[in-house]
Amino acid sequence: MSVALVKKAMNQFIMQPGAEVLCIAGRWGTGKTYAWNVALEEASKQPAKLPLKSYAYVSLYGVKNSADIIQAVYANTHPIIAPEDRRKDSLLGALSADDLKKKAAQFGAFAAEHAKIPFVDGLGGVARAMLANAVGDTLVCIDDFERKADSVSVGGLPP
Questions:
Q1: Which residue, 33, 67, 106, 114, has fewest beta-carbon neighbours within 10 Å?
Q2: Cα separation of 23 and 13, whole Å?
Q3: Cα(127)–Cα(32) distance, rounded to whole angstroms?
Q4: Which carries the bigger pLDDT value, residue 29 or residue 103?
């Protein structure tokens, strides 16, 4: 498939509302992640046209199970905003209430992963359901699929 066709498919996917899956396959080091990031950056220049307003990037490297994936999606979800707006926000140091909520969630996810907190561990399925529900209408990129742990199964397929 030509680079132009891949770019067109990525752009159509990013602009598509609803739940869809796009798989970009190829050898390691051929620029798949770079091409995706360029397509997303271009799309973010027109945020009013984007059907989904949030984005999460998750690497499967080091992920042990589906709970880790849900937690990583939640912790890495942020609004898709135009590059010039990101620059303005970083220069002004502006943090909205949503930004503060996301930072708190990231800290909670980090703490749950790196410290044994009985209360957090005890929530189990309830916490996972709450996190999964909190990231609706989000464009999610799952990368490093070939580096996933053997314990992570996909769509009912064996690990």
A1: 114
A2: 10
A3: 33
A4: 29
